C-alpha cells in the first residue's frame, strides 16, 4: 500500500521525466554530441518514445485535450523563436549581399522538391490522388531550422562546415519555413475551390502571397527595426539591465508569434524577417556574442518539444493497409526516395548559377542537408485545420465518415511524422557522414596590427616605445657585445627613429637596463630618482617615447604598406587547427584588427574564406604534395587577406577624402608625422607611416 502522502499525477510525472532526462543528457552532452555525433533531437525523441503511451505509458498527451491544438501552438513557439534566432545570428547585412543564393534555394529548389515528393507519394500511396499528394508533399518541402541548428548553427559541429555554406543553409532554414505557406495553401485552395481557377488565383495570390507573405515580411522587418532602435536607445541611456538585454530577443519573438497569428499573416516569416531587421547592423549580435543565451533557450525548448514528439508518434497508423492504404515498406520507400531526390538533383543542376555554392561537394552536401522536423509537423496540423474547419483551429477528433477530404486528413499526419523520424535519424548524424566522407583542413590566418588613433592619446600614452638599442644599454655594454652593437647600428640605419623592425629579425629582443639589474653599477643618484627623471623627460625603460607610440598617425594602407617588411607594424601569423582542442592564439589588444582566412580542402579544390564567410578564392589543388600544398595555402591565404584588407582600407580612405588624390594624401600625412615631404613622396609607406 502506497504512503498516503504520495501525490502522483500526470503533470508531476511529466516534470520529473523531463527534468531528469534533461539533467542526464546535459551531464554527458559533450560525449553524445561531439564524440558519438548524435544530435539532441534524436536523444530527446527516443526518450519520448520510451516514456510515451506505446512503451512505459507515463506521458500520454492524448489525455490532455485537443492534441492537435497543443501540437500546433507548441511547434509555433519553437519555430518562431528559432527562425528569429537564425535571423539575428546571420552576419551583418547578409540578406542584402547574398539574396541571390537564398532566392535560388527558396523558389526553384523548394518548387522542385514539392513536385517530386508529390509524385513519390502519389505513386506509393494508392488511396491518394495527385492533388491530395500535393497537399501532403507541401508539409515536407521546407527545411527545419531546429534540426539544422545542430549542424549549421553554433558549436563544434558547425566548425567542420565552411562558413559561407553554414550561413547559406541557416538563412534558408530560417526563411523557407515561412515560404512553405504558398505551397500548402495552393494545394488547399486547389482541393477546396476546384475547378474554379479564379477563386484559387484570387485567394492564393492576393491573400497568401501579397498579404500573408510579402506584407508579413515587411511587417516583421519594421518590428525588428523599431525594436533595434528602441533597445539601442535604452542601452545608451542605461535604461535596461544586462539580464533584460539578453532575453529581449526571446520576448520579441513571442510578440511576433502572437501578432502574426492575430493578423492572419505568416508568423514564421514574420519571425525571421524581424530577426533580420533587428540585427542587420550586427550591433546586437556583437553585444551578446559571448552570452550564449539564445543557445540555452533553444536547447531547452528543443529538448522539450522532441520529447513531446516522441510521445505523439502514431505507430499504429504506419501499417494500416486496409483502412489507409499505408504499410511500413511503402513508407520506407517514400523516405529513401525523398532523401535522394527531393533536393540533391536540383542543387547539382543549379550549382553553376548559385553564387555561394563553390564546389560540387558543397552542392552535394547542401542537397543532402534538407532536414524535415518541427516545421513539417506545424504545417501538417495547419493543413488539417484548413481542410477540417477552413481556419487555423484543428478539431479535437477526426471528422465523421463521408466528410469531404477525409482521406487526405487521415493520411497527412502519419506520412509527415514518418518522414520526420527518417530525417531525425539521417540528418541528425549528417555531420558524422560529412566528416567521415571528407577530411577538412581548417586553418585560420590572423594578421594583427595597431590601428591609427585619430582622436588623441589612449592607453598607449603610458607605454614606452621599445627600441632595439637604448641610450643606457649603449653606455653599459660589455666588450663581448660589440657584434650585437654593430647589428643594432645597422638596424637603426634601416629603420626610422621610433620604429620597430618586423617580428623575427635577428637581435630584436627586449633588453632590460643593466642599472636596474645591477644597482652597484648605477650612478650616485638612486635608481628611483633616475627613473623619475627619465619618465619626466619622455624616456622610459626602453628609450625615448616615439610620437607615433603616443598618437599614431592615420595610415593610408596600400599594397606596399601591407606587404613591405620594413613597416613599423608587425604581422603576426597564427595558424590554428580547428580539429585540435587547444589553441595558442591570444586575444588581441584593443585597437587591433584581425582579418582571418579559413582554408578548407574540398576534395581536389581549396576554398579560401575571410572571417565573415565570404569566399575569397577557389583553387584547384589536384596533384600537389601535402607539405607543398599546405605551404602554398598559407601563402595564398595571407596574400588574399592582405589584398582584401588593402582594398577596404583604400576604399575607406577615398570615401573619407574624395577630393584628394593619392599623392596629396601622402604629402598631407607625411607633414602630420613630422617627416620630410620629399622623402615621403619618394618612399611612400616607409618613413611616414608609423
TrEMBL record:
Residues passing through the membrane, by range: 12-29, 102-124, 204-225, 245-262, 268-285, 297-317, 323-342, 363-383, 411-437
Compartments, as annotated in UniProt: Membrane
Record domain Cation/H+ exchanger transmembrane: where: 26-434
Pfam families: Na_H_Exchanger (PF00999), Nha1_C (PF08619)
Region Disordered, residue ranges: 456-690
Biased composition (Acidic residues): 607-618
Record flagged with keyword Nucleotidyltransferase: no
Sequence ranges of Basic and acidic residues compositional bias: 477-494, 555-570, 619-690
UniProtKB keywords: Antiport, Ion transport, Membrane, Sodium, Sodium transport, Transmembrane, Transmembrane helix, Transport
Residue stretches of biased makeup (Polar residues): 545-554
GO MF entries: sodium:proton antiporter activity
Keyword Ion transport: yes
Gene Ontology annotations of biological process type: intracellular potassium ion homeostasis; proton export across plasma membrane; regulation of membrane potential; sodium ion export across plasma membrane
Membrane topology designation: Multi-pass membrane protein
Positions of the Alkali metal cation/H+ antiporter Nha1 C-terminal domain: 459-686
GO cellular component term, pick one: plasma membrane
Major localization listed first in the record, in broad terms: membrane
InterPro entries to which the protein is assigned, alphabetical: Cation/H_antiporter_C, Cation/H_exchanger_TM, Na+/H+_antiporter_fungi
Entry similarity comment: Belongs to the fungal Na(+)/H(+) exchanger family.
Protein name (record): Cation/H+ exchanger domain-containing protein
Species annotation: Cryomyces minteri
Amino acid at each position: 500500500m502506497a504512503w498516503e502522502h504520495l501525490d502522483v499525477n500526470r503533470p508531476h510525472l511529466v516534470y520529473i521525466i523531463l527534468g531528469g532526462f534533461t539533467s542526464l543528457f546535459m551531464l554527458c552532452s559533450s560525449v553524445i554530441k561531439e564524440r558519438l555525433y548524435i544530435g539532441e533531437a534524436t536523444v530527446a525523441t527516443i526518450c519520448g518514445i520510451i516514456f510515451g503511451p506505446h512503451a512505459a505509458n507515463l506521458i500520454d498527451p492524448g489525455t490532455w485535450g485537443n492534441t492537435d491544438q497543443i501540437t500546433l501552438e507548441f511547434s509555433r513557439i519553437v519555430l518562431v523563436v528559432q527562425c528569429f534566432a537564425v535571423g539575428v545570428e546571420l552576419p551583418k547585412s547578409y540578406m542584402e549581399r547574398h539574396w541571390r543564393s537564398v532566392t535560388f534555394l527558396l523558389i526553384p529548389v523548394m518548387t522542385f522538391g514539392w513536385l517530386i515528393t508529390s509524385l513519390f507519394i502519389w505513386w506509393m500511396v494508392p488511396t491518394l490522388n495527385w492533388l491530395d499528394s500535393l497537399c501532403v508533399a507541401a508539409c515536407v518541402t521546407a527545411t527545419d531550422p531546429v534540426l539544422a541548428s545542430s549542424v549549421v548553427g553554433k558549436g563544434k559541429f558547425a566548425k567542420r562546415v565552411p562558413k559561407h555554406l553554414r550561413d547559406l543553409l541557416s538563412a534558408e532554414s530560417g526563411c523557407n519555413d515561412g515560404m512553405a505557406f504558398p505551397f500548402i495553401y495552393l494545394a488547399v485552395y486547389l482541393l477546396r475551390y476546384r475547378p474554379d481557377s479564379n477563386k484559387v488565383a484570387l485567394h492564393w495570390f492576393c491573400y497568401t502571397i501579397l498579404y500573408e507573405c510579402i506584407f508579413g515580411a515587411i511587417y516583421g522587418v519594421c518590428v525588428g527595426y523599431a525594436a533595434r532602435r528602441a533597445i539601442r536607445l535604452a542601452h545608451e541611456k542605461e535604461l535596461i539591465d544586462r539580464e533584460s538585454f539578453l532575453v529581449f530577443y526571446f520576448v520579441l519573438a513571442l510578440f511576433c508569434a502572437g501578432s502574426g497569428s492575430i493578423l492572419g499573416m505568416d508568423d514564421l516569416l514574420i519571425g525571421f524577417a524581424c530577426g533580420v531587421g533587428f540585427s542587420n547592423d550586427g550591433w546586437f549580435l556583437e553585444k551578446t556574442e559571448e552570452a550564449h543565451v539564445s543557445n540555452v533557450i533553444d536547447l531547452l525548448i528543443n529538448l522539450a518539444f522532441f520529447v513531446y514528439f516522441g510521445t505523439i508518434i502514431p505507430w499504429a497508423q504506419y501499417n494500416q493497409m486496409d483502412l489507409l492504404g499505408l504499410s511500413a515498406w511503402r513508407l520506407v520507400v517514400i523516405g529513401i526516395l525523398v532523401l535522394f531526390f527531393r533536393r540533391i538533383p536540383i542543387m547539382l543542376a543549379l550549382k553553376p548559377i548559385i553564387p555561394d555554392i563553390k564546389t560540387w561537394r558543397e552542392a552535394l552536401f547542401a542537397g543532402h542537408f534538407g532536414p524535415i522536423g518541427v516545421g513539417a509537423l506545424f504545417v501538417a496540423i495547419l493543413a488539417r485545420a484548413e481542410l477540417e474547419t477552413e481556419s487555423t483551429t484543428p478539431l479535437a477528433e477526426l471528422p465523421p465518415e463521408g466528410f469531404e477530404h477525409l482521406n487526405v486528413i487521415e493520411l497527412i499526419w502519419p506520412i509527415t511524422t514518418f518522414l520526420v523520424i527518417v530525417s531525425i535519424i539521417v540528418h541528425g548524424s549528417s555531420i558524422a557522414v560529412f566528416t567521415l566522407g571528407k577530411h577538412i583542413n581548417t586553418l585560420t590566418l590572423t594578421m594583427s596590427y595597431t590601428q591609427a588613433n585619430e582622436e588623441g592619446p589612449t592607453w598607449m600614452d603610458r607605454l614606452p616605445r621599445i627600441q632595439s638599442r637604448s641610450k643606457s644599454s649603449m653606455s653599459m655594454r660589455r666588450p663581448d657585445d660589440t657584434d650585437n652593437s654593430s647589428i643594432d647600428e645597422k638596424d637603426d640605419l634601416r629603420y626610422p627613429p621610433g620604429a620597430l623592425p618586423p617580428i623575427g629579425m635577428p637581435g630584436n629582443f627586449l633588453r632590460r637596463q643593466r642599472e636596474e639589474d645591477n644597482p652597484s653599477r648605477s650612478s650616485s643618484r638612486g635608481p628611483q630618482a633616475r627613473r623619475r627623471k627619465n619618465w619626466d623627460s619622455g624616456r622610459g625603460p626602453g628609450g625615448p617615447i616615439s610620437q607615433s607610440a603616443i598618437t599614431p598617425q592615420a595610415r593610408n594602407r596600400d599594397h606596399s604598406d601591407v606587404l613591405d617588411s620594413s613597416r613599423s607594424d608587425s604581422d603576426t601569423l597564427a595558424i590554428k587547427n580547428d580539429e585540435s582542442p587547444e589553441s595558442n592564439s591570444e586575444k588581441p589588444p584593443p585597437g587591433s584588427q584581425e582579418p582571418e582566412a579559413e582554408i578548407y580542402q574540398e576534395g581536389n579544390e581549396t576554398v579560401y574564406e575571410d572571417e565573415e564567410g565570404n569566399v575569397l578564392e577557389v583553387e584547384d589543388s589536384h596533384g600537389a604534395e601535402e607539405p607543398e600544398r599546405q605551404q602554398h595555402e598559407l601563402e595564398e591565404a595571407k596574400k588574399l587577406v592582405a589584398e582584401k584588407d588593402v582594398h577596404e582600407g583604400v576604399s575607406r580612405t577615398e570615401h573619407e577624402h574624395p577630393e584628394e588624390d593619392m599623392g596629396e594624401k601622402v604629402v598631407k600625412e607625411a607633414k602630420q608625422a613630422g617627416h620630410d615631404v620629399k622623402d615621403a613622396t619618394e618612399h611612400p609607406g616607409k618613413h611616414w607611416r608609423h
